[in-house]
Amino acid sequence: MPGYGTETSEKGLIPWAEAEQRLIASTNYWVATVSADGAPHLMPVWGVWHGGLLWFSSGGRSRKVRNIAAAPRCTISIEDALSPVILSGVASITTDRADIRTFVEVANAKYEGGYYSEEFLDPAANATVKLTPEWAFALRHDDFAGSPTKYTF
Questions:
Q1: For residue 128, with 0-12 CB atoms within 10 Å meaning exposed, 13-18 middle and 19 or more buried, which class applies?
Q2: pLDDT, tens digit (0-9, with 9 covering 90-100), for 74-87
């Protein structure tokens, strides 16, 4: 974090396994997209970290889905602002039934409510989105100066 006086050595860096555990454990995620006119858009979603991707669903006509369809680059953060994990990359809207089935199974296991079904996530009405990260960033609130860690994929 140039300019913040943070550590420049590798001492205190966060292992990817720790960042990944935070991605798995988060209940809510913040999704940042950009509209065609350049306006930023930020919304919370439920999601799952699975198979090296961040998955979430949304209404097929929602602003974030329309933004992703037009400009697929986006950034997603876990809900913990004190010890965040932030992913940035390219999102894709999948219509593949196997992908949708995977999301339904993993999300229903995580949220323990059976909220999702393949029928509900019919691509004609709703969207299943996968973010493929290009880079990630994490830090620990109790080691702000020593822990900022950037990962590239």
A1: buried
A2: 999 999 999 999 99
